[in-house]
Fold this protein.
Amino acid sequence: MNTYCGPVFDAHVHTEFSGEHDLQAYEALKARFNIVAALTDSHAPACAERLPALGVGRCAVIAQPQWSAESLARGLAAGTFDAIKLNLGFMPVLADDPRLAPLYALARQFDVPVLFHTGDTGWHRSRLKYAHPLTLDETIVDHPEVKFVLVHSGNPWFTDAAVLAAKNRNVWLDLSSIVEGRLSHASEQTLDRLLVNPIRWMLDYTGKPEKLLFGSGWPSVDYPGYIAACSRAIPAPQQRQVFFDNATQLFRRVGSQQGSACADH
């Protein structure tokens, strides 16, 4: 199967731009893989002033249960933030914690998606019960006008994440960082078990390719291998939808600025 080569909206990158993964490396990656737009969830991205020109939107990252509604509102009003990211699991707070209620109100007011970290954190001091997809259902149901993204698709609780996306019209699944590191070190059978088959299953179960968003997690992943593996998982007629169209429509602040660049693709 040929690897997807159309326009890409990468819904999950990190832009600390350090070491070998500096700004020049990202610009080269952007050109090589036709990354028209992206969303960074770096709390303090480097070269922040350059991000809009690169087509990179920015999340307001909430990493502690104490946060400033005034600061978030200012950033949303100014267009600094294109989404809100809650690092569940890294902080021991459930999505329905009363301290987060004003955050959902702001997301609705400014019509920006809320991203939940879901599943494995890769950090031994995390509390995984706070990042389980099923803990999110009541919050999702209680805020039907807010758009929610389950980052990492609840890895490894893909079935639970898919149930939420199938049941709730306001839920999307992000495919980033399901397998990290150099994929050339893994056999095709291993990649099928850990990455390709879960994506296929989520597509089949939901029956809604419009609910899946391509995200990489760069620089934590082997980009060529990740694109290739996701291309194997997603049927060709649905690839542009998952790799580009869905995120462009969901993250409209970013997509509206970059979508015209793909009109002829």
About this structure: The mean pLDDT is 94.
